């Protein structure tokens, strides 16, 4: 067929030969080669680079390759710790990937605002950045409350012989322990680590029975989980507003 076309004197069309390739505007050679690798099952043994994954996503979005995009998204998620959260936020919004957004936003919430550069801010957009500032301010306020206000001993155990001394020492140990661990300016601890270190402290006149009861309350983590619930709700609000799956 190709030979007949060539002998007929007709103009040779794109894809008819190596000299007349098909030009895909806006698509890089690397991205198309990745597509061919996946299509013909010639998967590489090593990992994809961040640049390759981003280009591949652009290719899938431009040509509506839904199944291929699912594969690329799985590779991005597998390599999520190699991306800055702002990059993941940008990919999630631009290519409508709901599954990437929660992880990225939670990581941003843990990132000190001073470590977010102008480039990161441009990637995530002003609305995400503004909400992130509010979320971090609320989380810092909650952390200070938890550090300063210990859970009270409402009912002492039978082995407690000094109720006033027990409550006083519980308050003092909480402030000297949890207060320091949570509010350390150089190395603030997450709640789980702070509680673990707190349990190893000396509690002076706090009875063993009272200590066991209070430790069970800490393990339930009602006050600590409030921060996670707040972050999750803020994340869901932004997800519903900014990311949609076509």
Describe the protein in words.
- The protein has 246 residues and is mostly helical.
- 64% of the residues lie in helices and 0% in strands.
- It is built from twelve helices and no strands.
- α5 packs parallel to α7.
- The two termini are 40 Å apart.
- The mean pLDDT is 85.
Essential attributes:
mainly alpha; 246 residues; 64% helix; single chain
Count of runs of 4 or more consecutive helical residues: 12
**Measured distance between first and last alpha carbons:** 40 Å
Radius of gyration: 28 Å
Low-confidence stretches: none
The structure class reads: mainly alpha
Question: Could you report the average pLDDT, rounded to the nearest whole number?
Answer: 85
Topology, number of strands: 0
Which percent band covers the strand fraction? under 5%
Helix coverage percent: 55-70%
What is the succession of H and E elements?
A: HHHHHHHHHHHH
Overall 3D form? elongated
The biggest beta sheet is recorded as:
none
Brief write-up:
Helix 3 (50-62) packs antiparallel against helix 4 (66-78) and helix 5 runs parallel beside helix 7.
Topology of helices and strands:
Blueprint: H1 2-7, H2 29-39, H3 50-62, H4 66-78, H5 85-94, H6 101-110, H7 118-124, H8 126-148, H9 163-183, H10 191-199, H11 208-220, H12 222-242
Helix pairs in contact: 2-3, 3-4, 5-6, 5-7, 6-12, 8-9, 8-12, 9-10
């Amino acid at each position: 067929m190709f030979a007949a076309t060539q002998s007929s004197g007709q103009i040779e069309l794109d894809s008819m030969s190596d000299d007349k390739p098909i030009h895909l505007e806006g698509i890089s050679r690397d991205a198309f080669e990745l597509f061919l690798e996946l299509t013909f099952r010639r998967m590489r043994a090593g990992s994809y680079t961040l640049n390759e994954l981003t280009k591949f996503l652009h290719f899938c979005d431009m040509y509506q390759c839904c199944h291929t995009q699912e594969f690329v998204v799985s590779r991005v998620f597998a390599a999520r710790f190699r991306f800055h959260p702002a990059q993941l936020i940008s990919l999630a919004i631009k290519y409508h990937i709901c599954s990437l957004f929660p992880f990225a936003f939670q990581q941003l919430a843990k990132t000190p605002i001073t470590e977010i550069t102008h480039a990161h801010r441009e990637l995530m957009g002003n609305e995400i950045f503004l909400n992130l500032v509010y979320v971090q301010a609320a989380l810092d306020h909650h952390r200070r409350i938890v550090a300063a206000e210990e859970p009270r001993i409402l009912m002492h155990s039978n082995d407690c012989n000094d109720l006033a001394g027990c409550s006083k020492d519980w308050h003092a140990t909480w402030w000297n322990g949890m207060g320091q661990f949570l509010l350390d300016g150089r190395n603030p601890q997450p709640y789980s680590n702070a509680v673990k270190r707190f349990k190893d402290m000396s509690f002076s006149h706090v009875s063993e029975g009272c200590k066991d009861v209070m430790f069970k309350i800490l393990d339930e983590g009602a006050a600590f989980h409030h921060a996670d619930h707040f972050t999750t709700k803020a994340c869901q609000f932004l997800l519903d507003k900014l990311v949609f799956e076509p």
